[in-house]
């Protein structure tokens, strides 16, 4: 009899201790009470994204990140491409390759990669940030505003986000708010 009562309790505890899903993390980000809380959730989401990598792709991915930091953009792009050859459903790899391509001057490739990232994860806030900044660099204020608006719906406590949204709105729509 005691065993019959213990099993549901153990299952309940296991569910409570289970790591949050990406959906739960995005909900927590959207409803975070302040910037510090949002920063913490953002980092947990980034860890979640990285944990989607297989061991082999994780090694290639980390090498691509190091090369990006070292400004070896062609090597970084090659590594992120290798990651995507092995794991084509890895949204973070598309995002990172897109950002490296943008830094390397390949705007079309960057846009294609960021679009692929967003197809896999429509709430990938780093991809939306990069998409907004690419549009801004090209003078596409409406595109920059639209991407930033989506980002702010997902992550309302983005540092400087409200000011940037107002500025992009003014530039895109001529709105003086």
Task: Label this structure with key terms.
mainly alpha; globular; about 180 residues
Structure description:
With 177 residues, the protein is an all-alpha fold. It contains 10 helices and no strands. The chain has helices at residues 2-17, 22-30, 35-50, 55-69, 73-86, 91-103, 107-120, 125-137, 141-154, 161-173. The model is unreliable at 1-14 (pLDDT under 50).
What structural category characterises the helix and strand content?
mainly alpha
Q: Averaged pLDDT, please?
A: 91
Helix content: over 70%
Morphology call:
globular
Main sheet record: none
Low-confidence stretches: 1-14
Number of helices, where a helix is a run of at least 4 consecutive DSSP H or I residues: 10
Q: Describe the oligomeric state of these chains in a short phrase.
A: single chain
Number of strands: 0
The percentage of residues in β strands lies in under 5%
| Radius of gyration over all CA atoms, rounded | 19 Å
User: In whole angstroms, how far apart are the ends?
Assistant: 67 Å
| Helix-strand pattern | HHHHHHHHHH
